[in-house]
Amino acid sequence: MSTTWTDAVVVARYDATPRIAVFDLARADGDELWEYEPGAHIDVQVGTAGLIRQYSLCGPPGIRKQYRLAVLDEPASRGGSRAMHALAEGDTLRIAAPRNRFGLTSARRHVLLAGGIGITPLLSMAQSLDATGGDYHLHYCARSRSEAAFLADLENHPRVTLHFDDEPPEQRLDLGSDLGDPAPGTAVYVCGPGGFMDYALGRAAELGWPVSALHKERFSALPPVAAEPGEGGEGGFTVRLSSTGAEYLVPEDQSVLDVLLANGVEAPNSCGQGICGECIVRVRAGEPDHRDDVLTDEERGAGLFTPCSSRSKSPILELEL
């Protein structure tokens, strides 16, 4: 599977907060951009080293002349946010067609839980639901008002509640009351930093919300989980391609994707962390050791697998490649 890229130009840039920059991008040739649904993200190739990073689209869906991104300047990042923050109006970069594994479902009601920069995909969802008359409520959490992007658009919105760490405790997010017990026909969407994600998803589970009602998107991978003794998944194993029968050894210090690419196999890939879903393939034989944070239990049960992050519990893992 090949990725479709186009050249884009920064037509506008402004600082939403001291650490969050907003970019409006248009095609360099003036043509329209691809259509997308709320919750989608794009790959962005930026910087002299050809860095590829994923950023959620936070503008209203349906506007194809421009895409809007909001990027947090993260000192501990792998270089993408610094390269993005160095961009100025008129600069060019390359972007890929949108992908979406975090879209709105056909639920009767939607609860959107955003932490920090996690507002980006949920803002697009809220804009879409406003346009279609959907029933929703957005809870937006940030450390302070000064660190909350798009505050002017959200602070007086009747379907939005703001929660800031430096304001009175009673105004902070309390999922016992702000989310409550499971409600039929209600879908919950969670996006934000790891600590926020862990709290929101864990608390929702404690309240009895079924996994099928919870939808999430992470911006960074979970810490690796070591296999239990005797469980497998550590050490080397062999990956086999169902199309040719070719076999390659995957050592302990390399991913399946690393090995495939090193041997000239055309395998789709993007984030390299098991969070975007671009590299997903199907397992034909063997027992995978899933270490991604993008596949659902149903998808794993159906044989889907992320070569960039997951491994094998069996000596041989055959992939549909």
Architecture overview:
The protein is of the alpha/beta class and 321 residues long. 17% of the residues lie in helices and 31% in strands. The protein has a 6-stranded antiparallel β-sheet with strand order 4-3-6-1-2-5. Strand 10 (186-192), helix 5 (194-206) and strand 11 form a beta-alpha-beta unit. The longest helix is centred in the middle third of the chain and has 14 residues, at 119-132. It starts with a strand and ends with a strand. The model has no long low-confidence stretch (mean pLDDT 92). Keywords: 2Fe-2S, Flavoprotein, Iron, Iron-sulfur, Metal-binding, Oxidoreductase. Its cofactor is FAD. This is PDR/VanB family oxidoreductase.
**How much is the average pLDDT?**
92
Question: How many H/I helices?
Answer: 7
Q: Indicate the proportion of strand residues.
A: 25-35%
Shape designation: globular
Biggest pleated-sheet summary: 6 strands, antiparallel
How large is the radius of gyration? 21 Å
Strand arrangement, major sheet? 4-3-6-1-2-5
* Uncertain ranges: none
Q: Could you spell the SSE succession in H and E letters?
A: EEEEEHEEHEHEHEHEEEHEEHEEE
Helix content: 10-25%
